[in-house]
Fold each of these.
Amino acid sequence: MSIIRTGRNHIADIKPLTGDVALLVRIGKMKFVFPIHQHDEAIEFCKSLTDDMAAHTDVVPIDADELLRVTGTTNTEIMASLSEADREDIRQVCIATSLDVIRNCNDPKLLRQARTMLSHMDACAAAH
C-alpha cells in the first residue's frame, strides 16, 4: 500500500492482487468504481476531491465477486448487458478452460464441475 499525500488529506492506494478486476474508490460513505486498468484516472479523481473531504480516500482493488456485491448486480444481469459477440467470446473461454480441466486435472470435484459446465453450455447453445 502506498500513501499519496494531498494538500490537507491523503489517499491510501492499495496494490492490486491477481484476479482483481476493478478499483473501489471510497471517500467517506461515497463509493465509486473504476475498471482496474484505469488506476491513474481513479487516483486523479481522488486527488480532485480528497482535500475538500473530511475523510481520507481509499483506492481498493476488488475481484469479480466483490464487484458484484458492491454494485448489487448479478452475473445474469452482466451477461444480459453484453453483446452477442462478447457472450460468445466468454462461452469459448469457458469451453476451453473446462476442456483443459478435463484433460489435465485429477480432482474429482473439479472434473464434475467442468463436465457440468460443458453440459450446461451445450444446452444453452442448442436453445439459441
Amino acid sequence: MKIPQEFIAHNPIIELGHIKQGSNTSLLKYVDSPITFDQLYHITKTIRTPDNGRDIFGRGQAYRSSCGIGCERTSLEELAGITFKKETHLIRLVQDLYIAKQFSEDKGIAYDYVRYDRSGHLITDFIAKEGGYQKTMINVARFFDLNFFSGSHGTIKNLNAITKAGIPAIVFRKLNGKDKGDGHYILVYDVDMRNEIVSLFDPKYRGERPHDNLEHKGGYLTESFERFTERWSYVMPLKPGSKKTVSFNYYMFFCFKDERPKHPGKGIYYG
C-alpha cells in the first residue's frame, strides 16, 4: 500500500531536506538546524548532570498504545537532556521521520500504519493510535546522533551493567502474566543485585484523561528478580507447529556513541 499524500504533505523532514521520492537522500539531523527543529517539535536541551541511575523523572504515556513513546521520551531526557514539551511533539517527530525515510527509499508502503477509521477517513496520527517500536526509535536515535542498542536475550546482569552506567533500559515484556497480545514497554532504572530487586518506571495508561488534560504520570514500581523475569520472558514455538520453544527477553537503550556501557549483552548497535 502506497504512502498517502496526506502523510507526505507538510512534512518538515522532507521539505527542509529537499527530499525527492526514491532519491535515497539521508535524512536531516537535529544538528543541521537545531533552532528550527526546537520550534517545530517543541524541544529544549538542558545540560546533563551525572547521577547513579537511581533517580529518574518518568514520563507517562498519553495514549493507550504509546508506552514505547513514553519510555523513549524519558530515556532521551534522562540521557541527553532532550526534552519535549508534550508527548504529542515527540509523536510528531517520530511520525515525520518514519514517513520521510519511507519516501526517500521509495518503498511505497507504510507497513501496517495505513489505516482508516469506521467512516473511511485516513488515520493521520497513526503513531498515537498504533504506538512506536524499535524501528521508529532507531530513526530518532540517528536524528539526535545517538546510538541505539537492541537485544533479544537479555539478562538481569545486562540490565545491571546498563543502569549502573547511568542509562535507562527499555524493556518489552508481557502486559500482565496472562498477556498474549502486543506486550508493553517499561523502563528499568536500577537493579539491586544484593537484594534481588528491580526498580522500574511503568508509563501505564490509566484508561481516561484527567479533567485538567495533563499527561498521565505513570508509576514507579519495584519487583523481585523472579517476578520481573517471569513477565519479561516471551516463550514462542521454534517453528510453526513445533513443540520446541525459544525464549526472548527484549531490551534496548539509547546511549552516546562514545559512552557505550560495558557488558550490555548480545545485540546490535544502530546509529
Amino acid sequence: MNETHGLGAAALTDISDELLDAVVGGGSIVDPVLCPILGSLSPGVPGVVDIDPTGDTSIAGQPTWDCVPYDG
C-alpha cells in the first residue's frame, strides 16, 4: 500500500496564509518594516525564493508575501 499521511502542500499553504493574516493583520503592521528588508534581498535565489525590488516574495513559484503596491 502506498498511502500519503499528513497535509498536502496546498493545505499547508492555506494554513500558513491564515496564520500570517491572524498574526500580522494582513501585513498592515509588518509591511513597512519587512518589505524594505525583503526588497534589499532582491532577487533572492531565482527559481527557489524570488524577491522583487518591492519585497514581493514567492517560494517555489507560489506567492508568499505581497508588498505595496498590492497585486490585488
